[in-house]
Amino acid sequence: MSRELEDRSPLLIVETGDDLGLTIVRSESPTRIFLRRFAHNKLALIGAAIILIMLLAALTAPLISPYDPQYQDYSSLYSQPSRAHFMGTDQLGRDMLSRIIFGARISMAASVIAVLIALIIGLPIGLIAGYYRGILGEWIIMRIVDAVQSFPFLILALALEATLGISFINAMIAIGIGFSPAFIRIVRGEVLRVGTQDYILACRAIGTRDRRIILRHILPNSMPPLLVLTSVSMAGAVLAEAGLAFLGLGVAPPTPSWGVMLTDAQSYIFLDYNLAIWPGLAIFLVVFGFNVLGDGVRDSLDPRFSP
């Protein structure tokens, strides 16, 4: 029996056999569909590779870093890129490559912790606001969300960190709270969309508990846009952490952070432009990687996308 036709739709693969006159229709799993589509998106694969490299660098920083990121060699101030120092040294003789590698730890941790906080806040509130509408969802929860979103993100983060105190964890909490309204709105919108489907109405008709409907039916079918928002928000978290560190509200020196490195570079930019190029390039690559990865996930989950 040989395959003569493969349907271009993401759901069915059709096989025919002339010897028996049979037609076999086999469903393709959603995971396999996603992976097949994602594998055809070269830009998304590049983004995934960038994020994977940065993640591995963050996890293995003590093993692959050529120098201690805080070691100061006053005989090699402003050293240009060479075999000894691939990216040169800074104004205190510290190896730039080592500081970039260890700085990846801060940025990757920021992307995970801040978005995780936003998910912890936004996911349950969005589910409640979308499923239990009326006064609770429309007039209480969403009006509070509107009030939070009315503040510019940076101003809100600065105010929250000034209230909580200056530290890396408090900066992540501030960023997570600032991102949470977007998650609440996305989740609520998906709950409103999925909640009108026939299978949800059937579950309600037979008396299925609200908790089971939300966790077993609504939440899994609301994941695609949430995954895309998560990837894009990780890019925003990296930028936000670097911005707060640049203003002196994140990681305290001498801990290596890309934002702190940019802060140091602004005073010495005319002496050595490498001080600003390398941390800026690192931030650009991570943000680019998360963004194209999010675009790839969106296209791979879109049924209208055809590889």
Total strands: the figure is 2
Task: Report the principal-axis shape.
Answer: elongated
Helix content: 55-70%
Low-confidence stretches: 1-15
| Percent in strands | under 5%
Radius of gyration: 24 Å
What would your notes on this structure say?
This protein is mostly helical and 307 residues long. The protein folds into two domains: 1-39, no CATH class; 40-301, MetI-like (MetI-like fold), CATH 1.10.3720. It has twelve helices and two strands. The chain has helices at 30-39, 42-59, 61-64, 96-131, 135-149, 153-164, 168-194, 198-205, 210-218, 223-246, 258-265, 274-301, and strands at 12-17, 22-27. The protein has a two-stranded antiparallel sheet. α2 packs across α4 (96-131), α2 (42-59) crosses α12 (274-301) and α10 packs antiparallel against α12 (274-301). It is elongated and about 80 Å long. It starts with 11 loop residues before the first strand and ends in a 6-residue tail after the last helix. Residues 1-15 have low confidence and may be disordered.
Q: What's a concise summary of this model?
A:
The protein has 307 residues and is mainly alpha-helical. The chain contains 12 helices and 2 strands. The protein has a two-stranded antiparallel ribbon.
Defining key terms:
mainly alpha; 307 residues; single chain; 4% strand; two-stranded antiparallel ribbon; 2 domains; MetI-like fold
Give the secondary structure arrangement, pairings included.
Blueprint: E1 12-17, E2 22-27, H1 30-39, H2 42-59, H3 61-64, H4 96-131, H5 135-149, H6 153-164, H7 168-194, H8 198-205, H9 210-218, H10 223-246, H11 258-265, H12 274-301
Antiparallel strand pairs: 1-2
